[in-house]
Amino acid sequence: MKGNAAPRWAPPRVMGNLLRTARSLLFAALTIALAPGHAAALVGPAPLAVHPSGRFLVDVRGNPFRIHGDVAWDLPTKMTLAQVRHYLDDRKARGFNLVQIQLTQPVDYVARNWRYYPPFVWEKAPEPAQGTGRPFLKTVSGNTWAGEWGTADWSTPNDVYFAWIERIVLEAAARGIVIQMVPAYMGFDHSDGSGSGAWSDGWWPTINNSANTRAVMSGFGTYLANGHGVFGGLKSHPNIIWEMGVDMIPDSASWQAEEGTARLKAMMTAIQATGDKHLWTGHWRGEYLSTYSRAFGPFMQIQSIYTNGNPTSGPTYGATRYGYQFKPTSATQGNYGSAAAPPAVPTVLTETSYEGSYVGAPTAAQVRQEMWGGVLSGIAGAIFGNDAIWLADFSPSWQPSHAYSQGETVQHGTSVYSCRTPGTSASSGGPTGVGATDIVDGSAHWAWVTYTWPSQLNSAGAQDMQRMGVLLDSIPWSDLVPNGLGGIGTLITAGGGANTKWSEGASGEAGGTDYVVAAATPSGSHLLAYIPDPHTGTVTVDVTKLSGAMRARWYDPTSALYRAIGNFSKNGVAVFVPPGANAAGANDWVLVLDRAQHAGVLTLSPSTPATSPRGNVAFAASGGSGSRYAWSLIDNRSGATIDAGSGVYMAGVTGGVTDVVQVVDSEGNVSQARVTVQDGATVASGKRAGCGGCASPAASVGGLNILAALALLAGNARRVCARGTQ
Prior knowledge:
This protein is α+β, with helices and mostly antiparallel strands. The protein folds into four domains: about 15-390, Alpha-Beta Barrel (TIM Barrel), CATH 3.20.20.80; about 405-450, no CATH class; about 515-595, Immunoglobulin-like (Sandwich), CATH 2.60.40; about 600-725, Immunoglobulin-like, CATH 2.60.40.
């Protein structure tokens, strides 16, 4: 289709009525024919909307909906219907509520997909004829499109292919899963500016060819929404979020930026003009917000965060916090008509390092840090990715005594291998090993590529995401506000690690891998703080931000088990010592503070004493359970000691530091005091803080303050100094 000629999918009115009737009958049958065990009626949270606060999404019932997603980019072009069902069943069982896919992308067709039968089939139906798996039928010259690079004519969409996309949406809806869908994957901007084919992937060159004018792209948008023939269109399916771009910013492209952007915008606005009410987000180059694009920013209803993890894996909280702070206005984000701009845009970590990828090669602990950093900094959710699953490789199985050419790929065991040196495979065995680059197999040599996707459904990352969801779903997560933002104040006052260096469009986040990412509810009912694996030392929390007595626990993100710490009163700050290795052998933990389960409040006095090196303080506890008080030093910087039974503290020899004393009662209630051990200059001034100006410490025997000892013997647990009790 050229110029402004009518698209071929505009049939006469009578034929259109017949097709609509047939289409309705077809998809009624498809719904009934869903896999055994799945309800025929569509279920789940959709359609989604933005909460009035602008901070998170809500489902059809108005309940908070946190995106807890998985990436399966190539699912439409690589999986059979049975595999799609298997994958979606697994993700539903693990608590995932969204899957991110691209409708199609050209690499599969150019590289090899055209050589095989298309992977999708209708249930119990014969294999379609070769070629029907392509999304477009004709080239710019009117010939049959066979995957040639940059030549597809988008006025000739394949109804059978897009009916398959609709089937995927139906299958997801039956499981309560939302599909975040890229209508046109743009690809990395590797153009040399000449337009001579220097692109490595994506539809950008195709969108800018002579066939795909603005009118054609507008027609394609209408087609996606309304459908044609056996394709019923996507407008009526509630479980969709539209996602523009991926890996490039159209209006900043190095080639055809203005025209290509106009064509893409024509597609997007045509979808919206049909009455399509789905939400939109933008997924540009790494380290750019959805709202960055001049052309598409005003349409973005979800702020997608993309930290690309290349060349190394890094923290995600910097970019996510930046997105959280974005404030739309009618002037800069003016797609609101007469309505006022929302107060914020829900911020979601959409893509970062992939588990199992050679790019960045993230460890399991790094993947957890990226997910927790994203969700506690953006609040609206995070999308996890596994390298093998998004690739969804469907290479044939390895065969013995078979001639292989360079570049051919095979599946063997739980891995995928690529032939790097052509030759004939061995009569038995086959390539083995993970990560190897030169595996000898007869006269053929192989390199490990990735795992097979089914073997990764139960990966460590998938399990860790499930455990993250369990904790977040147990609290009012939608009320959380990131540390230091939204008026919540500073939650972590010491031991919080170094903040990352990040700015929009930079090459990635630098440093800050030990930063403690925290969030709390404004009501003070809950606080979560993720302590990453590289962090060392204690963490100090301002518990005045909390409401009354608080229960403190450590949550193991690798086992979903808690370790009790105790109950704290709302009294200044509290110092926490991470427990060390978790169940996976790493050192990351989540500190969980919520309302105490016990009515009694344990108090400790004095709460903020000061003394000199080798000085003594007699602590007293009251309240709580009233019995079995146990004293300890949880942060000992002076070299102090404390009697576990009596609470008599003696400072060490190092001055100018602060020690933290803790008491725990029989019910697990906790209270803490901070002891300032003065440096030599303060002591030499003749003042002892908290003692009204004692000129000298009380006499002592063997390092124990005599008056303190006498007071303890008399049952007086008040603080004692040379001027008497206080």
